[in-house]
Every structure is written in structure tokens, then in C-alpha cells.
Amino acid sequence: MTRRPEPAVPPIGRRAVLLGTAGALLGAAGCAGGTRGRPNTAATPTAPAPGSSPAPSNLSGPGTPSPTATPALPRTAPWQVTSAEVHPEVKRRAVALVEAIGAWPDGRGGAPAARARVTALRLPAALVAQAGPLLPAADEAVLQVVDAQYGGILADSASVLVVCRQWTRRGGAVRAGGTTVDVRLARTGTGWTVTDLHPARPGAPAAAPPARVRRVLADSRIVLPPAARADLRSGRVHDSVLTAMLHLAGRYRMYVSVVRSGHPLDVFGTSRPSDHPPGRAFDVWQVDGHAVVDPATPRTLVERFMRDAAATGSYNVGGPVPLSGGSTPDQFFSDATHHDHVHLGFRG
User: Fold this and answer.
1) Distance between CA 98 and CA 128 in Å, rounded?
2) Under DSSP, is residue 54 helix (H, G, I), strand (E, B) or coil?
3) Which of the four pLDDT bands, split at 50, 70 and 90, describes residue 18?
4) Whose CA, among 30, 106, 233, 282, lies 20 to 30 Å from 216?
5) 316-318 and 332-333 as β-strands: parallel, antiparallel, unpaired?
6) In angstroms, rounded to a whole number, what is the distance separating the alpha carbons of residues 121 and 131?
7) In this structure, are residues 317 and 302 in contact, taking their beta carbons and an 8 Å threshold?
């Protein structure tokens, strides 16, 4: 998103799948979201190879095949948030819904079962109709929330971008996938409720991705979740973004949260178009293994990353650290929305 400076908030942290209590929100419009809410790197499940994998077969004796075993899905961990997060109850609510829709035990797939899980959270069952890629046809599924960052937060409304990986089993085949869901919430008299879901729609992959796209996808220092990888493969991400990613990867290992799809079309709470949907922005939630939102992350690391981001040509760098200077007016900004990630916007 493109934003003007707003009052900065202290950097804070996040992560848990239990529903939280309601709290008051500060007014701060959005971009494009203890320790920040996400699985510990060591606990993140190892994904099966992309695509389908056949079920393994076991032999009970020489040349005597036993019945084919059902392939196991990866083990996942519930997303957690700490009280240090800005309004943790908002993210808890959004993540709980995505986890309820996108994961189910054997035989509990399909919309009716998903509606029952959503109703158990005291949320509208009609939200299941908006789940899209979060609810594929499968016998069972597990889901790992990688990150939940604000797409925007105001006094009575919020956008939480829930970035997730998902593994499904249908018969003897396991498939790795995932998406990013823009979860919209509204404050009520009793807490926060979810009003809408907007899953990422990256578009079809280009027939021949440009060389720079292939370089980014192959760079182990640029970690991209499923929707972001699909954004790059679609060919709809601007060269300025790709160049900046490659430049920053020379100094940092970064985990990207959002590129273009799964992000609000406008700067949250305004009618100004965001830089994300046209493919002219990306957000980073983790730098060199440190979550941007984690209060234990050295502020010097985040500040250095933000300044290096500006040096790549980003005219609009937002994050948890209020910075002075810049080559253009208002090049840096910090607010409640950007306490949990660094935003890099480009003019094209």
C-alpha cells in the first residue's frame, strides 16, 4: 500500500489459535500484519514435494505386497500470539477461522462439515461459501499458518492477511498447496466477528517466466509462501519488485508474506489504490530468522533492512521503526498496521 506517516507505535510481538477477548483498537489504516504469532521455524512442518505423491506400499514378505498404507500428512502446530501483539484478539479470531475451514480429519471434508466447525466458533456459517481454495475436495487436510499480518486496522474494522500452507490427501495422493486469505473483521458490542473472506487469486502461471522471476524463485534466501510464488509465476509482478528482492537477498535471508494477491485492493480504510495488487509492492515478516514483530529482534536489524529497502528504489517503506531521512519526502513511515512487517512500495 501507499501510506503517509502516521503516529508510530512501539514494536511488539504475536501467536495462538484460541479465541481471545475483545479489546479497544487504535485508529491506523492499513498497508497492503513474547514472539510474533507463527510457528517456530524448527517446528514448521516439512512439505511434501509439490504435486501428488503416491501412497507408499509395504511388503509383508518376499514378493507379497501388503495392503497399501494411507499416506500421512505433515504434523502442524497451532498459530499462537502473545499479549505483546497489537490487539491480539483480532488476529486470534481471523486465524481460528482459517484453521477451522482449512483443516479437517479423515472423512470430515466438504462444506457442511466446515460450516459446523465455523458455527462452533460462533461465526457465520455463510463464510464457508467464500473460502475458495481454502476448502478443496479432499479426504483430510492439515494447515499451517505461516504468518498473520495486518492489512489494516481501525477502531471498528480490520483486515488480517492470513498466510498459510496446506496439505491435503485424496485417496492415496498427498498434495501440497496453500493460499493467503484477507480476513475482514468488524468490532461488535461483544468482541470481534469476521464479516468476509477474500482468498488470494494469483492468476494462471505464465507460459515462460522471465529470467528474473526464475532467479527469485530459485533463491534460497528469498522464502515465498504459496500465493506469493504463484504471483511471481503469473508474470504480473513488476521488475522493480524482483530487482529489490534479489538485491536484498544479497545481504539478508527474508521471508516474504504478501506480494500482490490476498491483499486489499485499496489502502485499508481509504479509497487510495494499494501498490500490492498491481504487483508493485511486497511485505516481509521475517529477516535473518527474526520476526519483525518480535520485541527480541534487534531494532538495528529492522532499521538497517528498512534503509536498505529504500536504497533498492522503494519510495514507500513502512515498518515498526520510525525513521528519519530518506531520499524523497515521507519515504519512511511507521504505524500500528506496520508494526508486524516491513512494506516496500514501488512506483513502477
Assistant:
1) 10
2) coil
3) very low
4) 30
5) parallel
6) 16
7) no
